[in-house]
Design brief:
By secondary structure, the protein is mostly helical. It is about 70% helix and about 0% strand.
C-alpha cells in the first residue's frame, strides 16, 4: 500500500510541475534569445517592414508603368545596405523564425503596427 501512495505522490508532483511550468509568463519579444548569426526579433521586424514598403513602391511603379525588372534588385539591395545585412542572413533568420512561430507571430504583429503607424502619418499629415 505504501508503494501505491509513493507512486501516486510522485505522479502528482510531476503533474503539478508540468502545470506550473505551462503557466509561466511568456517572455517579451526583446527578452528572447536567439542564436548567433540570427537577426534579433526587433531588428527583423523593422527590416521586414522596410522590405514591405520597398515591395509596395515597386507595385506602385508597376501600376504607373514605370516598372522595369532591373529596378527590383537595387530597391531591395538598398534595404539590405541600410540595415547592414545580406540576403543570406535574412534567409537564415527567417528560416530560424519559421521554426519558432511564437516569436515570428510577435515579429509580424510589430510589422503590422509599424506599417499602420506609417500609413496613418502619410494619410493624416499634421
Amino acid at each position: 500500500m505504501t508503494d501505491f501512495f509513493r507512486n501516486t505522490s510522485i505522479f502528482f508532483i510531476i503533474i503539478l510541475g508540468l502545470i506550473l511550468q505551462s503557466c509561466s509568463p511568456k517572455q517579451e519579444l526583446s527578452a528572447k534569445t536567439v542564436p548567433a548569426g540570427i537577426i534579433q526579433p526587433d531588428s527583423l521586424a523593422v527590416i521586414l517592414a522596410d522590405l514591405q514598403i520597398a515591395e509596395s513602391m515597386l507595385h506602385q511603379m508597376e501600376r504607373n508603368d514605370q516598372f522595369t525588372d532591373s529596378l527590383v534588385h537595387p530597391v531591395f539591395e538598398k534595404v539590405f545596405l541600410k540595415h547592414k545585412i545580406t540576403s543570406d542572413e535574412l534567409k537564415k533568420s527567417t528560416t530560424y523564425y519559421e521554426q519558432h512561430l511564437d516569436i515570428y507571430e510577435e515579429i509580424y504583429t510589430k510589422i503590422i503596427t509599424q506599417l499602420t503607424q506609417i500609413q496613418t502619418e502619410i494619410s493624416d499629415p499634421k
